[in-house]
Amino acid sequence: MTNMVLALTAVAVIMGGVLAYVNHLTSGPINEQKEKALADGIKSVMGVSDLTVAKTDEVKQNDAKGKEMTYIIYQVKDAQGNDLGAAVQSTTMGFGGDLKVLVGFDPEGNILGYTLLEHAETPGLGAKADKWFQKGEKGDIIGKNPAEELIVSKDGGKVDAITASTITSRAFLLAVNNAYKAYKNTPAE
After folding, report:
1. Distance of alpha carbon 160 from alpha carbon 140, whole angstroms
2. Lateral strand order in the sheet of 68-78
3. Between the chain's N and C termini, which has fewer beta carbons within 10 Å?
4. What's the pLDDT tens digit per position in 32-60?
5. By the 8 A CB rule, do 123 and 168 touch?
């Protein structure tokens, strides 16, 4: 019995060490990949490839349930230094877990574009949010201004929800609405 316990303990310690080492080796490349995805996402949602992030702000505000949320606002300028607006990172709880969205706004608050940075939605259903709300699609929100809150039509709004994924659609639109509020609450330069 003692030999088995010692053997299992030794295997667990060795495997724990191997896992820690592999985690250490992969953490750098994983972080680099996330940074590249964010940089590409900012270019994508702003619709411009030649831009600079002039300033990064964090805005904390409470959601509808009173939970404090942090929004990251990337103030963007073009090559000539003209204000293009901002890309705002917003996270809400979707059907399967966190739904992290990056939304681009022009200086007036109109939506330029969006991309999903992370999600745990059901493949084939909620995962359709990456395309469903894009320009020309059924739930098109591009060009709209969330000053008038974006709400799914099932709840009396004007945005078509993803078929069989109303919870994901609500969570997505909440993330966009919250991103807009954070953008409007960004401290002036």
Report:
1. 8
2. 51-62, 68-78, 83-93, 98-105, 111-118
3. N
4. 988 888 889 999 999 988 898 888 988 88
5. no
- Classify residue 7 as exposed, middle or buried by CB count within 10 Å of its CB (0-12, 13-18, 19+): exposed
Contact 101, 93 (CB under 8 A): no
Q: Which residues contact 91 (CB under 8 A, 6 or more apart)?
A: 69, 98, 99, 100, 101, 175
pTM (predicted TM-score): 0.80
Q: Quick one: tokens of 114?
A: 């969006």
67-101 exposure pattern, b = at least 16 Cβ within 10 A, e = fewer: eebebbbbbbbeeeeeebbbbbbbbbbbbbeebbb
